[in-house]
Write a structure and sequence with these properties.
The chain has about 180 residues and is mostly helical. It has 2 domains: about 70 residues; about 110 residues, no CATH class. The chain is built from 8 helices and no strands. The model has no long low-confidence stretch (mean pLDDT about 90).
């Protein structure tokens, strides 16, 4: 499942306009030197995330080809109920990576029969209770007590978000 050209075009216009605006602000505040620094900074960022981008899209492609629709429907489909919300929550909690890893995979799962609820539970879990972020960033920087309190307080939300998002989707889907 690939985004339509129309939705990509809108995104390009919005982001391109923001880049243009910020380039003008950078030029006015520091001339070509400031603009050059921005290009250098963005190039460094691109080179650092490029491997993850490539691997994320390759992973999504392989999962799309190798995971049968019946498996996706069984574990995360419309009739999966609480199990689907749990699977979505657990998968979102366990899988590391950024949006370029997750969203192509989730779009593939939607196309293969995953329901909106488990997909939203996955996104919420990835955002709120990702174990990779918890162990690599939160525990060392915030300390055990703060990180654990935040993590435990957040655990209840991904399944609730998934359930509520699924309900809202069904209501909106019935509307004319």
């Amino acid at each position: 499942m690939t985004p339509s050209f129309q939705s990509l075009w809108r995104s390009w216009v919005i982001i391109g306009s923001l880049v243009g605006l910020l380039a003008i602000v950078a030029w006015k505040s520091g001339g070509f030197n400031k603009v050059g620094q921005a290009f250098t900074s963005s190039s460094s960022l691109l080179l650092s995330v490029l491997p993850n981008l490539i691997l994320g899209f390759l992973l999504a492609g392989f999962l799309n080809v190798l995971v049968p629709s019946a498996v996706v429907s069984k574990w995360m489909g419309q009739d999966s109920g609480i199990l689907g919300l749990g699977v979505g929550t657990l998968a979102g909690m366990l899988t590391p990576g950024g949006p370029f890893t997750h969203f192509p995979i989730l779009a593939s799962f939607l196309a293969k029969g995953a329901a909106v609820g488990p997909i939203c539970a996955y996104i919420a879990a990835w955002s709120l209770i990702g174990l990779n972020r918890f162990f690599v960033w939160e525990l060392p920087i915030l300390g055990y007590k703060v990180a654990s309190a935040r993590f435990l307080a957040s655990m209840v939300f991904p399944p609730l978000i998934g359930w509520f998002a699924g309900l809202l989707y069904r209501i909106l889907h019935k509307m004319p």
